[in-house]
């Protein structure tokens, strides 16, 4: 059997398990100047809402030790402009395209997904119930099991392709929210979104973000994400996409051993936008040296004490 990086999630085959994380390459246009997007397993868009949003005023990112904070505030073009101006480019890319959807109410999530259901050119929706940087919606859904189950169930009624639900780490027990998403009909889970944090400019005595706080991402959160993936893998039957500080192929192997079937790379793109290509190369070599035929053989194979 030939060695393969292919993975299948909810019946959709990906050439390799590496996707770009939402918010880290917009709608893919700029990244396609750096390498052909066919090198990716998949691309996840910035979150799309019903209406266009400008987001928070700058500064809305700040570098921190081993990571970064962001409070973009869901800046995006809105679903109609997305369908008109962005989908045509993405549709021709010959990689899996996942549209991340956010909303301030169940009705908004449902309406955005309903409009997207009528459109070809992408493979899945990732439901963002975990944005830490808006007053209404986002994390409010992802921290309440009842709301999680409801929004997932309502979206499944109007969207017929597979649905990924992206979980927040800012909860008491992430396995409860994962169970609620599964009960609502989610096909795949992705985890984790950013961890709430802040940073202070001691000269101005102001927060370094105009939103006063933001979401921490990057290698600083990798241990949190790994522990949460391992916990959800033990409790839940849905496939998991691991997210949180992945910057090299070894990180991917760690996530897979903890139970992830695929991963998303986010903050590392700001350090080196070619990270996904380098990771894929490293994983191929790893399969060869480990005499493994498929990465699937690693999933959940953590040998716990
Ligand atoms: O736009 C943002 O500020 C943002 C979103 Br929607 C999200 O899901 N996670 C994040 O760290 N920032």
Task: Provide keyphrases for this structure.
alpha/beta; 305 residues; 4-stranded antiparallel sheet; 32% helix; single chain; binds ligand RRO; 8-stranded parallel β-barrel; globular; TIM Barrel; 9 helices; 16 strands
Task: Describe this entry's structure for a reader.
The longest helix is centred in the last third of the chain and has 16 residues. The chain contains nine helices and 16 strands. The chain has one domain: Aldolase class I (TIM Barrel, Alpha-Beta Barrel). Strands 3-4-7-8-9-10-15-16 form an eight-stranded parallel β-barrel, surrounded by five helices. A four-stranded antiparallel β-sheet has the order 5-6-14-11, with no helix packed on it. A two-stranded antiparallel ribbon has the order 1-2. It has 305 residues and is an alpha/beta fold. It is 32% helix and 19% strand. The mean pLDDT is 96. The two termini are 33 Å apart. The structure holds ligand RRO. Ligand RRO binds next to loops.
Q: How much helix, percentage-wise, in residues?
A: 25-40%
Mean of residue pLDDT values: 96
Largest sheet descriptor:
8 strands, parallel, barrel
Structural class: alpha/beta
- Number of helical elements: 9
CATH architectural name: Alpha-Beta Barrel
The name of the CATH topology is TIM Barrel
- Please give the domain count: 1
Succession of helices and strands: EEEEEEHEHEHHEHEEEEEHEHEHH
Count of distinct strands:
16
* SS strand fraction: 15-25%
Strand order of the largest sheet: 3-4-7-8-9-10-15-16
List the bound ligands.
Answer: ligand RRO
């Amino acid at each position: 059997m030939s060695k393969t990086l292919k993975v299948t999630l909810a019946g959709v085959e990906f050439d390799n398990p590496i996707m770009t994380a939402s918010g880290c390459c917009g709608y893919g246009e700029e990244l396609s100047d750096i390498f052909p997007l066919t090198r990716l397993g998949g691309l996840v868009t910035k979150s799309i809402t019903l209406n266009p949003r400008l987001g928070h005023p700058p500064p809305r990112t700040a570098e921190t030790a081993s990571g970064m904070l962001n409070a973009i505030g869901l800046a995006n073009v809105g679903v109609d402009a997305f369908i008109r101006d962005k989908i045509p480019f993405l549709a021709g890319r010959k990689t899996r395209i996942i549209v991340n959807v956010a909303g301030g109410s169940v009705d908004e999530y449902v309406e955005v997904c309903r409009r997207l259901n009528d459109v070809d050119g992408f493979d899945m929706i990732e439901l963002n119930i975990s944005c830490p940087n808006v007053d209404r919606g986002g994390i409010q859904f992802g921290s309440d099991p009842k709301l999680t189950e409801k929004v997932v169930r309502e979206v499944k009624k109007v969207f017929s392709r597979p649905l990924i639900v992206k979980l927040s780490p800012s909860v008491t027990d992430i396995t409860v929210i994962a169970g609620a998403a599964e009960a609502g009909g989610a096909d795949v889970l992705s985890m984790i979104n950013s961890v709430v944090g802040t940073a202070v400019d001691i000269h101005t005595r102001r927060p370094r973000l105009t939103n006063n706080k933001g979401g921490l991402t990057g290698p600083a959160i990798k241990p949190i994400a790994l522990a949460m993936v391992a916990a959800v893998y033990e409790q839940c039957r849905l496939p998991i996409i691991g997210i949180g500080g992945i910057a090299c192929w070894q990180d991917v192997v760690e996530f897979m051993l903890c139970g992830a079937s695929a991963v998303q790379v986010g903050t590392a793109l700001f350090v080196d936008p070619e990270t996904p290509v380098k990771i894929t190369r490293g994983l191929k070599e790893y399969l060869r040296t480990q005499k493994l035929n498929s990465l699937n053989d690693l999933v959940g194979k953590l040998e716990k004490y």
